[in-house]
Known about the structure:
This protein is α/β, with parallel strands linked by helices. Helix content is 24%, strand content 30%. The strands form three sheets. A six-stranded antiparallel beta barrel has the order 12-15-14-13-16-17. Strands 3-2-1-4-7 form a five-stranded parallel sheet, with helices on both faces. Strand 13 (299-304) and strand 14 form a beta hairpin. It is globular and about 65 Å long. The relative contact order is 0.13. Residues 43-47 have low confidence and may be disordered.
Amino acid sequence: MSILIAMSGGVDSSVSAFLMTRKYKICKGATMLLFLNESLGISSKYPCCSRENIIDAKKICENLGIEHEILNFMQDFEELVIKKFVNVYENGGTPNPCIDCNKFLKFGLMLKHADENNFEKIATGHYAKIQKDSSGRFLLFKAEDLSRDQSYVLYMMTQEQLARTEFPLGSMKKSEVRELAAELNFVNARKHDSQDICFIPDGDYGNFIESFTGKKYPPGNFVDSSGKILGVHKGIIHYTAGQRRGLGVAAKSRLYVSKIDNKSNSITLSFEDEANLYCRNLKVKEANLIAFDKLPENFHAKVKLRYRQKEIPAVINQTGEKEFLIEFSEPQKTPAKGQAAVIYDGDAVVGGGTIF
């Protein structure tokens, strides 16, 4: 059997590659080149897609006695991930580019490349687990190490993709991964973990968008729920629903972003006790189901609205082929349009979609 292993140059993918060499007869490492650090003004301190990371991936492959290749997906990454990221922010949303990268590149283009080169499977360093049930259906589960669990950003995987993917680290603790890398004398055993958004390691989304587009986004008004002007914002791309820090508006108690209106270029702020800051239900589009072909009626489960957020009890109904209606047991602070709502039944990922 043969497998193509995604090699970022980090410790997780390196240990994954080692584990796959013990299971598969033919292994090959593949590093996806998504952007050049220099072109985005990213310091070499953050090695994602840097020459340093590519060299580390190549060294690991040499140590393991397997071939290594570079897959140039830069144009695809810009078109499918970065431009969408910018567009969602410009329209008052909050995107999750890691989900799009997984959907279109890792389990899209990379799997296609594996097909074209006769590899039966692919492997990545994600912390999640795949299991096959008695009916032959492939299911996605949380990782053993819940502090590293990445099942949230994998909800879009199809049955075909799950059937042809290995997650070697799903049953390992991060500490075990680093210990194994040190035992193997991997050059990256102590390398820091990559950032959640690889192309914006400093977290300044607004500055990145302005640099990428070459545009300046005009300031506008902060308003309350009645339309009264509370202050001036520095451009809607700098804010997200639910945000409370960095608003620069003096008030008697905490204010939160409850609405971003790109058409009027205004941002509504609400106090924590105001009803318009909360919602009891929301809709998702571009939905994908893993556990079922069709969601059972009035399905009781838990829903995660952000990567680091706890799951919330809810009742979910499928309202269209790729649309869900989610009704929470208790009101939730305004979810961010563009983020993912991922449905869990215990540790199993039922599916998910994009909030709109």
